[in-house]
Amino acid sequence: QVQLVESGGGLVQAGGSLRLSCAASGTMPSINTMGWYRQAPGKQRELVAVVISGGSTNYADSVKGRFTISRDNTKNTVTLQMNSLSPEDTGVYYCNVWVRTATGQLWDYWGQGTQVTVSS
What we know:
The chain is mainly β. It is built from no helices and eleven strands. The chain has strands at residues 2-7, 10-13, 18-26, 30-39, 46-51, 57-59, 67-72, 77-82, 91-100, 106-110, 114-119.
């Protein structure tokens, strides 16, 4: 079982910055992908950014150039640095981790979510 603990959400004015962190703990033979998703009110959950074990990253077009995702494999943490925030970035941000078991299966886990609110 894997537990994800998120931190760093809050209220910020447009143009400001926030830093989200997610720490994974538990039985994790190998962590594959770590990422962040978000869900705005009335909308579906969407990918924000992911980073795979080798360090490659992928971003939603709407956040490219403003957000930076990074991971620390020694601490099993993933961080999302969010700059130049706009009200459209408002939503609940969820940490997501894909873990490869000892038998080769892939399982994904979700954090509880952290609220990000950007005021205009």
